[in-house]
Amino acid sequence: MGCLRCVFFFAFRNCDSSVLGVYFSTMCASFLIRSHFRSTLSKNAVLRRDITERQSHIIIRLLRTCVNVRKRGYIHSVGQYHNTGFRFNFYNSFSLSTRALTKLKVVLGIETSCDDTGAAIVNEHGHIIAEELHSQTATHNETGGIIPNVAKDLHTQNVETVVQRTLESANMRLQDLDAIAVTVKPGLIMSLRVGLHHAQKLAHMSNLQLIPIHHMEAHALTARMIGRIDFPFLVLLASGGHCLLAIARDIDDFLLLGTSLDTAPGEAYDKTARELNLIKMPQFCGMSGGAAIEHMAKYGDHMAFPRLHVMAQSASCNFSFTGIKMATRRQILAEYSKSGLPPDELLPNVADICAWFQYNVIYHLARRLQRAFIFVENAELIGDIKTLVVSGGVASNSYIRANLQHICSLYNYTLVCPPQKLCTDNGIMIAWNGIEKMLSGRNYLQSADSLDVVARAPFGVDISKSVTNTSIKLSKLKLLGEK
Ligand code: KG4
Ligand code: ZN
């Protein structure tokens, strides 16, 4: 056992300073532990419970060190290790990949711009080491929308736990990080402040620097964490606070083709869901209005009412969702008065209204996209590889995605949508944006005290007027299932 202890100390002492030391010591450890317990181990073995407390304690500490090292990217595979069962595979445990000799950057991301408290640790290969999210949706559903003070209080109550849990599940300390990325704009000012203040506190405790993050830029670039997407690409962001269409030319270089002139699509979804009393239904408890409408719309007919014509005369890529929201409200009121039902009951044709509402949303998005495809082609702003990235909460909607896929195939675009949990707000996208900024070679790192939050922030360079000036006329567009 003395021998084992030596190996542990050797591994521990060397792992910070020398990767080869870790390699050597872990190989030694592997060999020694294996020979020490040869009688009780086999491939994927479970250690017999008759080893002493002390022996198991030493092994676990050694393995923790190795697991930590792996998480930082030194060691490719540590096999399985569970705190409770001593289950691990020694034969795969300490293989070192060729990449392992370089230390990977690791960033903690903190997101509190709206109603989600998120934190995550991501490395430069886009590997999500740990993540935590506390959603406030259930509370805001009860109060009938986001009340900034309530959102702030909930962030304050949860941010410390969310970050702490992230570090714990990554089995990391602040000192293991390379930087802390934190959303500073745009968003609810009081909510943003909670995240920034917590990041500042952590930075002071650990001497780390902060990377300020633009929430919408983080949404736009999340897809690059999943797979290779080269610049330039087209990006559509549709969320509860924004709707914008842009060309991403670099991690900090965007050309804005169009944006919402009024309501964001997610806001229209949420309002409509409330007016339809959907979020009071037990099966939609804790769900966003958007997700509830998507679900209900599956059972409805999108042609139940005539299609709305939104900004049909405007040759721009700008959006407007207030018209759709108001027209849907009028339709809902008319249906209540026709049915004679009290306004807090569910309409019998609620599914039709949901389907019709969604259809109008996607039709409007599709027409703007159609114009953007033509504009960027004519202006030679996109290369031969044509990619459309779609993100933001509304982009997690399968009906919207399916129709976007359809439009993309008509214009030879590849559609890339991050997985649903990366479309809605989360800490992962903030950490990844921090990683991209660190790897860019430009200096985005700032001292903790130099940062402040901003409620409204522009997204890239606005060229929406150039789009309108080209007066692009659109050919007819048929969505999925239309003849
Ligand atoms: O991106 P996000 O999480 O937060 C903002 O930055 O706004 O987006 C939240 C919005 C909410 O309005 C929510 O109703 C909407 O995204 N949303 C959806 C769906 N899931 C969330 N909208 C349509 N369909 C969905 N499945
Ligand atoms: Zn968002």
TrEMBL record:
GO annotation terms (biological process): tRNA threonylcarbamoyladenosine modification
Top-level taxon: Eukaryota
Entry keyword annotation includes Cell membrane: no
Protein EC: 2.3.1.234
Class in the EC hierarchy, top level: transferase
Gene Ontology MF terms: metal ion binding; tRNA N(6)-L-threonylcarbamoyladenine synthase activity
Cofactor binding notes: Binds 1 divalent metal cation per subunit.
Chemical reaction(s) catalysed: L-threonylcarbamoyladenylate + adenosine(37) in tRNA = N(6)-L-threonylcarbamoyladenosine(37) in tRNA + AMP + H(+)
Alphabetized UniProt keyword annotations: Acyltransferase, Metal-binding, Mitochondrion, Transferase, tRNA processing
Cofactor dependence: a divalent metal cation
A GO CC term attached to the entry: mitochondrion
Subcellular location as annotated: Mitochondrion
Keyword Acyltransferase recorded: yes
Pfam families (UniProt xref): TsaD
Domain Gcp-like span(s) in chain numbering: 127-432
Family of the protein in this entry: Belongs to the KAE1 / TsaD family.
Assembly behavior: Homodimer.
Function statement: Required for the formation of a threonylcarbamoyl group on adenosine at position 37 (t(6)A37) in mitochondrial tRNAs that read codons beginning with adenine. Probably involved in the transfer of the threonylcarbamoyl moiety of threonylcarbamoyl-AMP (TC-AMP) to the N6 group of A37. Involved in mitochondrial genome maintenance.
Protein name: N(6)-L-threonylcarbamoyladenine synthase
UniProt lineage: Eukaryota, Metazoa, Spiralia, Lophotrochozoa, Mollusca
